[in-house]
Amino acid sequence: MGQENNTADVESLQKSGRRSGSCLNAFLITSIIVLFALVAALAAFGVMAVKKLQSKLDVPRRVSESELFEKMSGAQQPSVAFNMEKFAYLEAMKSSLKNGTMEWADVKYGVGSSIGSKFVFDSHQMSLKPQQSGVYFMYVEVKITCTSRCNTSVVHLNVSNKLTCDVELPSHKKSVSKKCWTVSTLENEGLITQMRVPDKGFQDWKLDLKNSGLGLFLID
How many Cα atoms sit within 13 Å of 105 on the Cβ side? Predict the structure, then answer.
């Protein structure tokens, strides 16, 4: 009789062990599934967050010319919202107005420069060259002030036959600002800005260096 009870106890323990093992296996499998589900959810959330952040930082690939002009020509130091490698800005170096090639220089701010990596500026030739073919937004802005008694005149600017800008200078005004812009397809060509002025009557008109420059931005 004692032997039968021992046998029954052993079988009961074995069954209990098998049930416990089954429960443990089920718990482990469930935990693993839940863990994978959490990892997948976190990964999906991370991708969505990154895409949302990029959508806020990146420049839209298709914007109207007027919107781009307002954003690009409103400040001399480009916003972080614009990808700096696609942007270049040059500032006028000399205030005198005369016939010939305009002299430019890049703008330094912190450890950076106003010339993005997709451009090359030749300070000897005064040539700004995009390294990538594409559609570009180009603008030139000038501010010209009268330092004494000035005559009515006009300044003609030409950026490699891609952009022309005529600035009328009335004798009754002490300061004139003008911005001209265009959207053009450019190959790997250097852009040089030529100035043309009348032979006389320009000694008292001067270029405001901080408010005169050439900007270029890769759209597509």
Answer: 8
Residue where the block lists tokens 């030739």? 125
- Same domain as 174, residue 84: yes
Can you read off the two tokens belonging to residue 122? 């030749």
CATH of the domain at 165: 2.60.120.40
Q: Are 76 and 179 in contact (CB under 8 A)?
A: no
Domains held by the chain: number: 2
CB 176 within 8 A of CB 143: yes
Q: Which of 107, 39, 44 is nearest to 76 (CA)?
A: 107
User: Alpha-carbon distance 220 to 83, whole Å?
Assistant: 12
Q: What is the pLDDT of residues 51-96, one digit of tens each?
A: 444 444 343 333 444 444 454 544 444 444 446 788 999 999 999 9
Question: In one letter, which amino acid is 27?
Answer: F
- How far apart CA 161 and CA 180 sit, in angstroms, is 13
Residues 3 and 92 both lie in one domain:
no
Helix (H, G, I), strand (E, B) or coil at 67: helix
**Same domain (yes/no): 24, 95:** no
| Buried-state track 46-71, b at ≥16 Cβ within 10 A, e below 16 | eeeeeeeeeeeeebeeeeeeeebbeb
